[in-house]
What we know:
Layout: H1 2-25, H2 28-31, H3 41-79, H4 88-115
Helix pairs in contact: 1-4, 3-4
Amino acid sequence: MLLLLTMINPFTALSVVNTLSMATASRRREFAPLRPAGAQSAQVLRMPAWEAVLTCAVALPAAAVVCGSVLVPLSIALTGSAVPALTGGPLAALTGGALVLTAGTVTLAGLLALRSAAAAPRGPARAVP
């Protein structure tokens, strides 16, 4: 079981990093007007980082319910007990790792998106007639 988790977790982390990087990079045009409007780079980067934390706050309990629906029957079949044999340490490590991975990926991808040409300020704003 530990071998299976060891193989699944890096693949899942790679998928999450890839998805978040692409989603954040596609938001360059959304970040572009924030800089000329007076937002500092740190403020722009905090926005997607907090969005990632809130996403984790919703996704982790949902993932726990889905995993529980699979692990409880498996635990009953293997041990006869409905309580899966999981300790708090690995669960806390997975939770913390998910938070660090999502916030770090979105912040790094946002930093790279801010440095791109599409997010660079284009001069003073002009009034639209």
